[in-house]
Amino acid sequence: MLSEIIDLDGDKMREECGVFGIFAPGSDVARLTYYGLYALQHRGQESAGIAVSNGKIIKGEKGMGLVSEVFQDTAKLQRLVGDIAVGHVRYSTTGSSLLVNAQPLLVRYRNGFLAIVHNGNLVNGGELRTELETEGSIFQATTDSEVIAHLIARSGEKDIEDAVKKAIPVIRGAYTFILMTKDKLVGLRDPKGIRPLSLGRTADGYVLASETCAFDTMGAEFVRDVKPGEMVVIDADGVRSEQLFASGGDSLCVFEFIYFARPDSNLDGRNVHTARKQLGRRLAIEHPVEADIVTGVPDSSLSAASGVAEHLGLPYEMGFIKNRYIGRTFIQPTQEIRDLGVKLKLNPVRQIVEGKRVVMVDDSIVRGTTSKHIIQMLRNAGAREIHVLISSPPVKCSCFYGIDTSTSGELIGAQLDVPEIAKAIGADSLGYLSEEGMLESIGLPKKGFCTACFSGCYPIQLGISKRSKLMNDEEDDGGCGGCGVHI
What we know:
The protein is α+β, with helices and mostly antiparallel strands. The protein has two domains: 17-250, 4-Layer Sandwich (Glutamine Phosphoribosylpyrophosphate, subunit 1, domain 1), CATH 3.60.20; 272-323 and 334-443, Rossmann fold. It contains 18 helices and 23 strands. It is elongated and about 70 Å long.
């Protein structure tokens, strides 16, 4: 039975994290990192932090909440003086939402100081933690990032580059790391390239960030994407890189284009807004519908909605107003006002939708609960018909690579077919974009994406605990219907 708990983002994949690093002697690196994290805020809203090296020691400030909340006291930034900095915004996918798990993670070990920021998830993180604890390691947090820190500290190598090269081969998963020592910045992307990382240049140095929108905010120039399996090192001698893993089988998370990344970011040379608009055009081709207006669910669906409207030759209207000053969730004190949670975040414009046949475009449906309430709001506002178009295939499988998704038992796409989903959410019709149409619309090589949440084909072998969870989900709920060869 599908859950009826109201979550304002219940029909969305959960954001991962945003990482940022800068090597720029002579610049206010803490403030530039602050600007970079502001641009990456959409990737995580639970905690934020910045650490800076002055060449001798590393100091850090972090806290729970948004970047603006954590650094509301400008004295925190003023205390962070140096030439190198790393920053992080977090949404927890492993580890509780606690201050101890906020990043950057600062480590002092026999070779000096180390700060680490991380986006993604290790599929064998639990097994590695158990092995390290058996060998005497003591963990303070519950994140995969600390596992990496312990592996580096125990490598026995004095040079950070050698330590990384020795530690990294034992980990499996989707990740981007940025490491900072007292005099170096090191960026690393997983062998499949599931999590993004880009390199930029400032007047005084270089920058690493999850998305290129961070470069625009601080006036940096995009240089290139970090390659899958590549280690980039930035120090006083400039930038150098080393390919730690053989290239091939790139699998960038397709949800970066569908939902996660900001529309003004570029991934693999492709603008996100342009790609989403093309997703909408292809969606309209695959599911033509007779209607009066097209509207999108703010914000990530607006680009696709404009593409749908253009192809169908229908007016693109602002059917919803989004309250941008409300948090992720809403505490429902009584059963009678449960629906108020969604209404506080989104409000339909009656004068736009009343008496109209409405095409409502969204990027995905995860559990279906929020979609059901949004559709009901449109009906209450007088919409005559509501046709829902989704700019991605049905989400049928859990993600184990750093995105917080429900188990397959809670995924409406794994439990019901399309007509049944349409009935469950109260839509007059429902159309999903095909996987082929999605990949063709993005305009990059089809084999360059991870689509496990749609297909069940996981590009990286899962760890024991995650493999067990997947098998239990399949036994209980009918499975993901994937190829199974990568499990």
